[in-house]
Write a structure and sequence with these properties.
3 domains, binds uridine-5'-diphosphate-xylopyranose, Rossmann fold, EC 1.1.1.22, N-(1-d-carboxylethyl)-l-norvaline Dehydrogenase, domain 2, alpha/beta, 14 strands, single chain, six-stranded parallel sheet, 18 helices, NAD, UDPglc_DH_bac
């Protein structure tokens, strides 16, 4: 079976490579010639565990082809996937420009019937717009005899485990109003639908909404927990105990109820905002989603507020060690990352930052360039030199079990601002460190060493 993918971003590249691995021949079309050249040489533009070797192997076996020639892509196969980006426009709505350009391109070059499958995350009603764009293109060419169909097939992969998520999807949503198209897509996904049924077929609009509903639900869980963490903080309760206590109820469950510095990345912030805008454009006020977004924005400032209050509201001239720049572990993605809000607020307040991240250093350099108030360090230990305090923003494995003794010795003030509740405040306290976390009871600051040894 042959497939064409338009748009070789995160979703397109991972899904195309996984289809190629399953034995299909996949042609990937992108307008960026440099990207295409690199991919042909097996160089991938993103950091994603397992992806580079998958791309290399399938390029070598000729199952994965790359081109900038859209006409070649359209002619290549009856199944045309649209996986181009839908970036937010100024008001946060999903910008469908690229999706509709691909639709028009398919209409311009098609000579055989096509099934057009929308993989990009798009608002409800987009399939109708794609259909209208193709119809129009065919009319212009006087080729309304050419049959085509449009289906929705959203993607649920997570950065950092994208290859595994795609290889073993927990669900495969097929949105179509046409039994023939459903059958075609069922066959395509058969290699990924073994052992137990994962395909959930539904009408197009429900499928389009399922993608947004899934991300909005997860974002809601996080914002809810972050709000509870604020309450715990004020009331002297421990949110980590509360988390375990509520997660035991199977109706709530343990997943996605970790409080922290707010959600970031390429999906949740963008999709929650886009859903809000689509609802508002239709005259509906999505009060809950607006609150989810508002809590997330406030939450990104949570750590900075703690830092500021700890230093009496003035951090001018202070230096902070910062662990974690990516919005989550196992990625170099800093889109909407809480680390950015933290760093920018500290700079604004006159402080400097010494940062380390296992994967996102190049990305950070690309975003911020050279600036005197940011030092990018080669190791997490190097960030501590001369720093007033340590701020932990991303829960990389490398940060889970630090040498508290070394941290205590290096910092000017023995305090860690733990944005992911990684550390047990009691253990840190035994090493003479205070941990300020998200929604956990504040322990008395450690006694000065001399006093402690006298007491012991
Ligand atoms: C998400 C969805 O999980 C995925 O299904 C969808 O296709 C794209 O969006 P991703 O953005 O890669 O994937 O990251 P995810 O692992 O879901 O984390 C999103 C954010 O939520 C991160 O900033 C993470 O730190 C935060 N988070 C997650 C929490 O703050 N608490 C949690 O309990 C879980």
């Amino acid at each position: 079976m042959r497939l064409t993918f338009f748009g070789i971003g995160y979703v397109g590249l991972v899904q195309a490579a996984v289809f190629a691995e399953a034995g299909y021949q996949v042609m990937c079309v992108d307008i960026d010639p440099q990207k295409i050249e690199n991919l042909k040489a097996g160089k991938i533009p993103i950091y994603e565990p397992g992806l580079e070797s998958l791309v290399r192997e399938n390029v070598a076996s000729d199952n994965l082809l790359f081109t900038t020639d859209a006409q070649e892509g359209v002619r290549f196969s009856p199944l045309q996937f649209i996986a181009v980006g839908t970036p937010p426009d100024e008001d946060g709505s999903a910008d469908l420009r690229h999706v509709l350009t691909v639709a028009r391109t398919i209409a311009r070059y098609m000579e055989q019937p096509k099934t057009i499958v929308i993989k990009s995350t798009v608002p409800v009603g987009t399939a109708d717009k794609v259909r209208a764009a193709v119809d129009e293109g065919l009319k212009e060419r006087d080729r309304i005899d050419l049959a085509f169909d449009v289906a929705s097939n959203p993607e649920f992969l997570k950065e950092g485990s994208a290859v595994a998520d795609c290889m073993k999807p927990d669900r495969i949503i097929i949105g179509t109003d046409n039994p023939g198209t459903e059958q075609q897509l069922r066959e395509l996904y058969a290699p990924f639908n073994r052992n137990h049924e994962k395909i959930i077929a539904m009408d197009i609009r429900s499928s389009e909404l399922t993608k947004y509903a899934a991300n909005c639900m997860l974002a809601t869980k996080i914002s809810f927990m972050n709000e509870m963490a604020n309450l715990a903080d004020r009331f002297g309760a421990d949110i980590e105990r509360v988390r375990v206590g509520i997660g035991a109820d199977p109706r709530i469950g343990y997943h996605f109820i970790y409080p922290g510095v707010g959600y970031g990345g390429s999906c949740f912030p963008k999709d929650v905002r886009a859903t809000i805008r689509t609802a508002e454009a239709d005259g509906f006020d999505p009060v809950l989603l607006k609150a989810v977004e508002a809590r997330n924005e406030l939450q990104k400032g949570f750590l900075v507020n703690k830092v500021l209050s700890h230093f009496g509201g003035d951090v001018r001239g202070r230096r902070f060690a910062l662990w974690g720049l990516a919005f989550k572990p196992k990625t170099d993605d800093m889109r909407d990352a809480p680390s950015r809000v933290v760093m920018e607020a500290l700079w604004q307040a006159g402080a400097t930052v010494q940062a380390y991240d296992p994967a996102a250093m190049t990305e950070c350099r690309r975003i911020y360039g050279d600036r005197s108030d940011l030092a990018l360090c080669d190791t997490k230990e190097a960030t501590l030199t001369g720093a007033d305090a340590l701020i932990v923003v991303t829960e990389w494995k490398q940060f889970h079990a630090p040498d508290f003794q070394a941290i205590k010795l290096a910092l000017r003030e023995p305090v860690i601002f733990d944005g992911r509740n990684l550390y047990d405040p009691m253990i840190a306290q035994r090493h003479g460190l205070e941990v300020r976390s998200v929604g956990r009871k504040r322990l008395a600051p450690p006694a000065p060493l001399t006093q402690r040894s006298a007491a012991e």
